[in-house]
C-alpha cells in the first residue's frame, strides 16, 4: 500500500503548495519545491512515535497534521502538515514502522525500573 498526499493550504484545503508526501511500507519521502526540488527520505524502521493533531480550521476542511518522531538525523521530527486522510496515514505509519523494526530486528525495549524482589533480598545480606 502507498499513500501520496500533498500539503494543502488551510483555506478550503486546496493543494496549491509544492510539497508532496509519499508514504510506503519501507520509507517516507518528502519532496519540497517548484524550481529546486529537495527530496528527503526517512526509513520506516526509524520512526519511533507518531502523533495526530487537528486544529478547528483543519477539522472544518477535513485535514490533519501527522508528526513522526524519528531517529533520522535530518528530520528528527518529520511533520506531514495539512493532509487529507491524516488519521489513516497515521495508523498506516504506526503499523508499518512496527513491522519494519521487527523485520530489521531493531526493536528497543525500555527498562522502566522494575525490580525483582529476590534480587533485593540478596542485596540485603
UniProtKB/TrEMBL annotation:
Organism encoding this protein: Acetatifactor muris
Domain YdbS-like PH: 18-93
Protein name according to UniProt: Bacterial membrane flanked domain protein
InterPro entries recorded: YdbS-like_PH (IPR005182)
